[in-house]
Amino acid sequence: MVLAGYRLVVNPPRGPLGWWMVALVAAASAACLWWAAIGTKLSLADLIEGLPWIGDFLGRMLPPNLAYMQNLVRPAIESVQIALWGTVLGVVLALPVCFFAARNLSPHPAIFHAMRQVLNVMRGINEIILALIFVAAVGLGPFAGVIAMAIHGAGMLGKFFAEAIEEIDQGPLEALSAAGAGTAQRIVFGVLPQVLPAWIGVVLYRFETNIRVSTVLGMVGAGGIGFELISSMKLFQYENTAACVVVILVLVLGADLVSSKLRAMIR
Question: N or C: where does the chain have the smaller number of CB atoms within 10 Å of the terminal CB?
């Protein structure tokens, strides 16, 4: 609705009727936002009233217990390992599905819609919920986090992979078909060269996201530094909590730096 209003403002239709449409969309957008604000109980006064409590909490966290960081080396490494394998397995699961989920390559509309719904289900369930399910299935530890991250990541990656395939130039595919190339040859020589740069960029971004997610999955017993974070909070050891936050920020910033460098090399 907001996007429609944006298009109408950027390219306003001519005539009085057109401006009435702009006003109608703007009013509907404002009403929708107001309805959402009421439902979420947005209140600036409550936020201002709660600022002293935020300050008190932060005051208990400072200064961070730097000595505690030596206990966080192994959990931090484990978080990176979870993110790495979650990304790799997500790619492995997404690849077989994405070609059938692309409208221009899917052999039948029914298969196309079925594969799109599979991807929707996979990415529609949050990683924490999946982690809870797999913790119950395989027990506490990082393996549950890897599986949860792989399934959710496959849904996200599969969608982006399929959309990249739908945007390719059809000329090379038509030329290969005219030369008698089979489906596998068309994919290898006509599709992959066009989509690989975009795919690699998406995979790197997903790895960044998985680094952040892996720090949270430990809160539900799926390994990583999140377990240390939630344990320190439950024990009211807020200086240790601050140390965990510092390590998490270092992990996220490091992943972002490495991903940016790799994307620049690809370009």
Answer: C
